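Tokens in:
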């Protein structure tokens, strides 16, 4: 009973969403707190689960287990106690009325997000209603649960209760979606499948490169040219091979001239109708101006980098455009295979031909990388809508109910009455779990969700989800053969991965389009020569969408994209910058530091800060100083230095517990702590308003330019009587040109980079 009581106490402190996440992954999203205890809690829940199964064993063994469990529970409660706000801190919070409102906002936000520690309030009632469901489930054995879930078609592959993670296999639909055993239906055939002269898909995939061209692409630099398009702006075309025909933007697009697969010609205008209401030109009935120019590049099978994606304005337009392109590619590829199946079936016995090479070494053709489950949910809904010709002809979607349950979100779990910027609400809408992967198989009029990777046409995954499958060198169980024949790679919202873990993206790029280690039952007589020659990366199209230009994102596009057709990058320069959105009267001092190389700028910035900047703020008169630090590694370095120098400071990062955040904000507001070290990732995931700032130091320019104005505008939360003492200092180097231009504009950036003197700007609030 002690074990069951401890389990109930633990479960009452978690919301439905947290319980589900802990069961599946043993950890929580960085959007939430309690980071360091997540894995421990997950393991403890797992241990409790198995302990419930052994309650019917003999008394002697039960007594011995209970003795050892007492020690474990007590140790666990000690750890859990560190996650709770101490009575002392709670009493201190009640002392200051000016901070109580901010603390209540923080507490209410955390509680509404599922971190109730007492089980009180609306969130507590929801948790109490959820606890009996968990306890009832504990009476079943693991074998009964597993057999029941398999009978219901439930995925047990990602459940830690069932041991190692294995990909779910939809056995009952395997034959229905097999490309090898199905044939083309006449009414669903692609009318342009055999027209090599006009079909972009055929032109791109049937092009036979020579070894000289491959060697040329591997050794010679790319040549580039510029072009100005009406909607996209300045485009940079680059290619290593011979100069291709100049690509021009189409003023008007006829759906029939795009060589779309047959059903898409009729479904696309209906699906995209929601974005056309604000379009002035009624003649173009299928694309917005942005979609028209983007799809023109996509349909030419060039690589594309678009760094102006905005979750509020054009995010869904872009998502619809690349879903159309990806689905069109898959349908054409599968139609070619099914058509050749019929030809091989009808050929005369004894005849052998090599004309039916239409496959890769593995089946997956499209890989979509998105940050959250909500993004995957929207993509699947778009794909389904594009396949449904009308309301009467609904396509058959297997495992749809299960998909909605795992990738959907509960509207009641959304925290009410939270004041956050609109872009924050748009990015973190719906299910924000960032550990997932799902295979999608499409065959004519049917879609199969949760298909095994080697039976999938499209794989939708997060960087973390795909990283756990690829594994690391030396691990026994790792797999990346399914990435060998990817023909279209779509990386959407790449800027968010900078806030998650960019190493996962780099790890993916190193393992894509490699020769598989196993044949996986492929018919080598049907494999294209480009795949057998290991030239697939030169045919792969990469579509990269981001909200900003960043050196790390640019590096992926420049160093990991080898498309023989070429690359297209949008390179528009900002003319005003986010500094124009600062509404408080504040002097901005931009201090330039010198560095010999981009690798030495990290140490140069640290030395410049402790030698030139920090001494000016050591005086007590320069209290209430917030230091904004984009890099977590720089944050750790400064924190250690401040501790070594015994400076009066506090700190907040993405791993700081809720109680510590409340204390740090209170101490900083009262002036009990002179400095506050503040990380960019914490601001990205929380967007708290920090009160009491009088002096602001940007240790490095922010990744998101609008964060600059957001942090500066926090000063208006302080009493207006001390306006004259406000200061803002920004550190930058010549390697921060892109970030600097996004903050101050391109004209000022050019002047600041030419001059080695400090630049003083004064924003009146009217700019």
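Residues out:
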């Amino acid at each position: 009973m002690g074990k069951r009581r401890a389990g109930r106490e633990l479960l009452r402190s978690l919301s439905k969403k947290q319980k589900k996440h802990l069961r599946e992954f043993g950890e929580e999203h960085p959007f939430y707190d309690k980071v360091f205890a997540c894995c421990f809690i997950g393991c403890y829940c797992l241990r409790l689960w198995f302990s419930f199964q052994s309650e019917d064993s003999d008394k002697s063994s039960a007594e011995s287990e209970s003795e050892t469990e007492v020690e474990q529970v007590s140790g666990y409660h000690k750890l859990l106690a560190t996650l709770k706000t101490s009575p002392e801190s709670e009493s201190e919070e009640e002392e200051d009325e000016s901070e109580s409102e901010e603390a209540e906002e923080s507490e209410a936000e955390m509680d509404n997000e599922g971190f109730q520690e007492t089980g009180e309030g609306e969130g507590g009632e929801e948790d109490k209603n959820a606890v009996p469901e968990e306890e009832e489930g504990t009476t079943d054995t693991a074998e009964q649960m597993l057999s029941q879930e398999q009978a219901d078609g439930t995925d047990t592959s990602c459940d830690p209760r069932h041991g190692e993670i294995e990909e779910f296999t939809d056995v009952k639909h395997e034959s229905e979606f097999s490309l090898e055993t199905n044939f083309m239906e006449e009414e669903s055939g692609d009318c342009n499948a055999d027209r090599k002269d006009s079909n972009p898909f055929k032109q791109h995939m049937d092009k036979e490169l020579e070894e000289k061209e491959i060697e040329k692409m591997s050794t010679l630099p790319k040549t580039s040219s510029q072009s100005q398009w009406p909607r996209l702006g300045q485009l940079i075309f680059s290619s290593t091979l011979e100069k291709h025909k100049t690509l021009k933007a189409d003023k008007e697009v006829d759906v029939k001239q795009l060589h779309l697969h047959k059903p898409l010609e009729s479904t696309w205008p209906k699906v995209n109708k929601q974005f056309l209401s604000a379009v002035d030109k009624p003649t173009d009935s299928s694309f917005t101006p942005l979609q028209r120019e983007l799809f023109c590049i996509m349909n030419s099978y060039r690589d594309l980098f678009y760094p102006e994606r905005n979750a509020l304005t054009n995010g869904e337009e872009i998502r619809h455009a690349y879903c159309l392109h990806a689905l069109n590619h898959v349908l054409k590829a599968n139609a070619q295979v099914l058509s050749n199946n019929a030809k091989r079936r009808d050929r005369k016995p004894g005849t052998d031909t090599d004309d039916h090479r239409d496959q890769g070494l593995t089946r997956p053709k499209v890989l979509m990388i998105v940050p959250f489950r909500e993004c995957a949910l929207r993509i699947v809904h778009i794909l389904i809508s594009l396949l449904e010709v009308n309301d009467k002809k609904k396509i058959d979607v297997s495992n749809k109910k299960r998909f909605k349950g795992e990738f959907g979100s509960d509207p009641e779990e959304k925290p009410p009455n939270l004041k956050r910027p609109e872009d924050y609400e748009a990015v973190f809408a719906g299910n924000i779990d960032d550990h997932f992967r799902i295979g999608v198989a499409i065959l004519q009029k049917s879609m199969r969700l949760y298909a095994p990777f080697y039976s999938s046409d499209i794989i939708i995954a997060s960087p973390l989800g795909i990283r756990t499958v690829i594994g690391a060198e030396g691990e026994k169980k790792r797999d990346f053969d399914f990435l060998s024949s990817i023909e279209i790679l779509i990386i959407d919202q790449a800027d968010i991965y900078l806030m998650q873990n960019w190493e996962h993206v780099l790890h993916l790029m190193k393992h894509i389009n490699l020769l598989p280690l196993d044949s996986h039952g492929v018919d080598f007589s049907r494999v294209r020569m480009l795949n057998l020659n290991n030239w697939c990366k030169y045919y792969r199209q990469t579509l990269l969408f981001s909200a900003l230009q960043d050196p790390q994102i640019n590096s992926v596009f420049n160093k990991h994209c080898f498309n023989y057709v070429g690359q297209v990058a949008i390179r528009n320069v900002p003319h005003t910058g986010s500094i124009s959105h600062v509404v408080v009267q504040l002097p901005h001092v931009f201090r330039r530091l010198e560095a010999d190389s981009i690798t030495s700028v990290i140490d140069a910035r640290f030395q410049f800060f402790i030698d030139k900047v920090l001494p000016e703020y050591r005086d007590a008169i320069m209290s209430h100083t917030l230091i904004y630090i984009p890099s977590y590694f720089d944050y750790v370095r400064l924190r250690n230095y401040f501790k070594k120098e015994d400076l009066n400071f506090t700190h907040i990062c993405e791993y700081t517990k809720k109680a510590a955040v409340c204390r740090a904000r209170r101490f900083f507001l009262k002036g009990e702590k002179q400095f506050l070290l503040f990380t960019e990732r914490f601001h990205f995931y929380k967007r708290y308003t920090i009160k009491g700032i009088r002096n602001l130091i940007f240790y490095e320019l922010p990744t998101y330019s609008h964060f600059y104005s957001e942090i500066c505008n926090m000063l208006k939360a302080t009493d207006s009587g001390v306006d004259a003492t406000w200061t803002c200092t920004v550190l930058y180097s010549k390697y921060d040109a892109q970030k600097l231009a996004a903050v101050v504009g391109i004209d000022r950036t050019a002047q600041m980079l030419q001059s080695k003197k400090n630049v003083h700007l004064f924003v009146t609030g009217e700019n």
